[in-house]
Amino acid sequence: MPDIASSTKRLLLGRPVRSDRSEGALLSKRLALPVFASDALSSVAYAPDEVLLTLSIAGVAAMTISPWIGLAVAAVLVTVVASYRQNVHAYPSGGGDYEVATVNLGANAGLTVASALLVDYVLTVAVSVSASVQYAASTIPALRDHEAQFGLILIVVLALLNLRGVKESGKIFAIPVYLFMTAIGVMMVVGFIRYFGGTLPPAESAAFDLIPEPGYESGLVGIAGAFLVARAFASGAAALTGVEAISNGVPAFCKPKSKNAATTLALLGGIALTMIMGILLLARVAGVKIAEDPRTQLLSQGQPVPADYVQHPVIGQLAQSAFSGFSPAFYIVSVVTGLILLLAANTAFNGFPILGSILARDGYLPRQLHTRGDRLALSNGIIALAAVAGGLVWIFDASVTRLIQLYIVGVFVSFTLSQLGMVRHWTRSLRTEVDRTARRRIVRSRAVNGFGLMLTALVLIIVLLTKFTHGAWLALLLMAVVFVVMKGIRRHYAIVAREVALDPDLSASRALPSRVHAIVLVSRLHKPTMRALAYARATRPSVLEAVTVAVDGKESTRLLREWDELDIPVSLRVLDSPFREITRPVMQYVKSIRRSSPRDLVVVYIPEYVVGHWWEQLLHNQSALRLKGRLLFLPGVVVASVPWQMESVTTSAEARLGGPKSSDGLRDRAENLS
To answer: Are residues 266 and 355 both part of a single domain?
Structure first.
């Protein structure tokens, strides 16, 4: 069984990588862009849809302002990218927003940012996988009503790919990410050329009439209209998610790390801005119409659209229009769009483990998250992210509409606190810097982060106001829960550290027990029992005795007779058990020894079988496991397991060929104890 498990692990993950080869696992800009930018780039596939869906509530007239919404989102994107370029230079250690907030605003602010980012990373995986599944289900009817199950399979596949290492997963994901960028770029170029040439056919939904929902018959006028515009802007701001992942992943870049990370940020910002603006403008000229409820809002020649009408995403409609007459291009765009929606989750699979490792190092998360696996990946963080995100996909049935409302709240909390922290960082630097050139650079950097602070704070307020009742409250609740849990973990580690620390004079820590009382548990006379007795005698305890529990009177009598016949030089004590229990009598006896001699150390030796197959383990050692679990909580008690390897785990020919020994063999072992 262990060999099969090891072989399967090697097949799925590859051979282990030596620690001294960690430099070889670093990413060049060419690989870092698809690894860290896939989340932000994938938002191009659904952010325009969210903007148009929100504006559709007020009817077709409201959708004409979608390019202006895109411009507002683009302005925020440029500001955030410029701000984070400052971050990666000032804090290249990989702590990102968490480190910036902790150093400049205090531990609680840093922990707030960390909780926001952890929640956002989980939601990134859940939303991206759900969007990919929904996209696939719209083209593959067999997947309908099975989206959640398919989503779980995809999360497992992503986790396995990332467990192979960051560089390995980067190579795998680079091709589809670059194909997506190329496909969308070609689609926009062809679409605008055909538009200006007068040959661009209208989108499939252009002929539909879009009816506003009740209360919005007058369009975007009044407070309700302004609120709807703000909500559309908040939905479009999903395009900014993923920008922070690069600042958290600086250690994964090749040297010079900060410069390469800043360059990758600039590339990401330029590509994402071009795409989202191009898609919104092309959707406007192609007449794309999508609605939250197509059955009631979309009319075809004055009648509701047919019941079997499938509303295709914006990119799907644009590809069909731009590449009309050449269907292979349409299918290529559809396939790579579905892939990029899935691969967006890969950004979280790189950012979450790094942030989790830093938090574990600081004592806020279990320390297992700080260790690297065979392939130098932070395996425990990857597995934890996959498990939690998979749970959300299952609970929300892979519904993007329900999950998207929880999204982007956390990332703008981290944006805002990070920018505030950077403003304080530059202000503090100005107090000690005397060089004029350096001071001008610092003032310029502070202005960039200050503007970023105002803009991201404004967006955060808008997001909270427009999305709070639609599900943002749940994201805030999750952040609060994570914050409290991390505080509790830090408190636990602090208590443990105090309890195990050496006393100042070391006298108490060096105090030795007055005596050692050894107990060997005996169920019957066999080789494991004799080995346990031999081991116990080898430690030369002050007191050594064998103990058995009289569950069956006849068995106990036979054991005593065999013990005397073999003349074993260790006394055998029989504990009475009228209710046929094993654990309770042993526990009571050990406690009685501790009460009579509190300074004595009690060592309990438990013989155990070591078997080669998992199903064999179910047939042995259950009583020993229960007893060990109870004894571990008794002060002044040490539990020693004495293993006896069965033939199923032995590799020597002698062990495989050897048969059961006779009672003479036991007698020989008893004589060896003398």
So the answer is: yes
Q: For the residues 188-207, what does the mean pLDDT come to? A: 90
Burial classification of residue 213, based on how many CB atoms lie within 10 Å of its CB (0-12 exposed, 13-18 middle, 19 or more buried): middle
Instruction: Please compute the mean of the pLDDT values over residues 405-423 and round it to a whole number.
Output: 83
Clarify whether residues 211 and 301 are in a common domain.
Answer: yes
List the Cα angle 356/359/361 in 5-degree steps. 110
| Tokens found for residue 265 | 């940020």
Residue whose C-alpha is closest to residue 242's, from 133, 398, 120? 120
Q: Give the model's pLDDT for residue 23.
A: 45
pLDDT band per the 50, 70, 90 thresholds, residue 452: confident
CATH code of 80's domain: 1.20.1740.10
Q: What SS3 class is residue 573?
A: strand
Query: How many Å apart are CA 286 and CA 279, to the nearest integer?
Result: 10
Output DSSP code: residue 291. Answer: -
Mean pLDDT of the chain: 80
d(CA 135, CA 129): 10
Domain extent at residue 558: 513-673
More confident call, 478 vs 225: 478
- On whether residue 582 sits in a domain, the answer given is yes
Residue 188 has pLDDT above 90, yes or no: yes
Residue 119 CB coordination number (10 Å): 28
Task: List, as own/partner pairs, every contact residues 583-590 make where C-beta atoms lie below 8 angstroms and the sequence separation is at least 24, other chains included.
Answer: 583/623, 583/626, 583/627, 583/630, 585/549, 586/521, 586/547, 586/549, 586/627, 586/631, 587/627, 587/630, 587/631, 587/634, 589/519, 589/547, 590/519, 590/631, 590/634, 590/637
Residues 6+ apart with CB under 8 A from 453: 416, 419, 420, 423
pLDDT at residue 169 is higher than 70: no
Read off the DSSP letter of residue 216.
-
pLDDT at 61: 67
- Whether the pTM exceeds 0.85: the reply is no
Helix (H) or strand (E) holding 298: strand 298-300
Lowest mean pLDDT among 143-157, 226-240, 607-621: 607-621
Whether residue 488 is found in the same domain as residue 596: no
Tell me, what DSSP letter sits at residue 253?
B
Distances (CA, A) of 231 to 58, 193, 222, 291, 348: 12, 32, 14, 15, 25
Residue 134 · residue 398 · CB < 8 Å: yes
**484/539 same-domain check:** no
Residues 462 and 525 in one domain: no
Residues 107 and 161 in one domain: yes
DSSP string covering 100-112: HHHHHH-HHHHHH
Q: In this structure, is residue 501 part of a structural domain?
A: no
Residues 366 and 484 occupy one common structural domain = yes
pLDDT at 602 over 90: yes
Shared-domain flag, residues 657 and 595: yes
Residue 251 covered by a domain: yes
Q: Is 516 helix (H, G, I), strand (E, B) or coil?
A: strand
Amino acid at 402: R
Boundary of a domain, candidates 494, 521, 546 = 494
When divided into structural domains, the chain yields a total of 2
Q: pLDDT (tens digit, 9 = 90+) per residue, 118-129?
A: 988 888 888 888
Phi first, then psi: give them for residue 641, nearest 5 degrees.
Answer: -90, 130
- Cα(227)–Cα(240) distance, integer angstroms: 21
Residue located via tokens 């004589």: 671
Q: Tell me whether residue 209 is in a domain.
A: yes
